[in-house]
Amino acid sequence: MKYKPESTRNDPMLGTQDVYAFDNGYGASVIRGRYSYGGPKLFELAVLKNDNLCYDTEITNDVIGHLTRAEVQKLLAQIASLEAPGE
Are 2 and 50 in contact (CB under 8 A)? Predict the structure, then answer.
């Protein structure tokens, strides 16, 4: 399954940020730009919980950088399958 962002923002300094939201209360911020981990050619992903950065999932405890588009999609699938917060 290919996940599509809920919103996209373009910023001259940040680059492009896609925000994903899932029914389980989690989501992701995916950035690609000059200052992201991976530069303008690769992606950086942060897990979101209730629209805030989340550093305590089984997926990661930090942002994940240097990702290909395929790796981002794989991580999005993992985030979408997390148990909803508080369950």
Answer: no
